[in-house]
Amino acid sequence: MNYIFGALVGGLIAIMVSVNGQLSVYTTVYFSAAVAHLVAAGGSFLLTLIYPDGSERKKKLPIYFYLTGILGAIIIVLNNVTFKALGVSITVALMLLGQMLASLVIDSLGLFNMEKVSTGKEKIPGLVIIIIGIIMIMLS
Predict the structure, then answer these.
(1) Which of 4, 7, 57, 103 is most buried when burial is the number of CB atoms within 10 A of its CB?
(2) How many whole angstroms separate alpha carbon 102 and alpha carbon 108?
(3) Helix, strand or coil for residue 118?
(4) pLDDT tens, position by position, 85-119
């Protein structure tokens, strides 16, 4: 089921990049980023009211746990800028490549209190195929 959710998230990201990118074409990249975050905050607030967790924070968390909103704002602004210049396909492809490379580094080094996960040479062919695919998209 998690694999299905992962594929669903990928599809939703492509839709988000496209719709938010179009909004930035008609307004500005910053306005569209603000709209995205305001709608997300409102939706999250409503979900919190509908489905309260009830759990309490058990320990002090690192400050970077609370800075993800800043990363989200940067991501949306950069998506909008890239969308205007490159379109949806290459924007999403490059974004997924960046996510994959960052994930491999995080896993292999065990960053952010994550358990270390081996990232051996067997993953290189997959990365090469992805990079070739991105080059093919860029050339077409």
Answers:
(1) 103
(2) 10
(3) coil
(4) 898 889 988 988 999 899 888 988 998 888 898 87
Contact 54, 98 (CB under 8 A): no
Cα(64)–Cα(129) distance, integer angstroms: 33
Q: DSSP state, 119?
A: -
DSSP 51: S
Q: What separation in angstroms does the CA of 121 have from each of 102, 104, 127?
A: 16, 12, 10
Q: What is the pLDDT of residue 54?
A: 64
Residue 114's contacts (CB-CB under 8 Å, 6 or more residues apart) are 106, 107
The answer to whether the CB of 85 falls within 8 A of the CB of 94 is: no
**The Cα angle at residue 96 between residues 34 and 120, in degrees rounded to 5:** 140
> And the tokens for 116?
């270390």
Tell me the per-residue pLDDT of 13-60, one tens digit each, with 9 for 90 and over. 889 889 999 999 999 999 999 999 999 999 999 998 898 776 666 677
Task: State the DSSP string of 55-114.
Answer: ----SPPPGGGG-HHHHHHHHHHHHHHHHHHH-HHHHHHHHHHHHHHHHHHHHHHT-TTP
CA neighbor of 130 nearest in space, from 103, 97, 104: 97
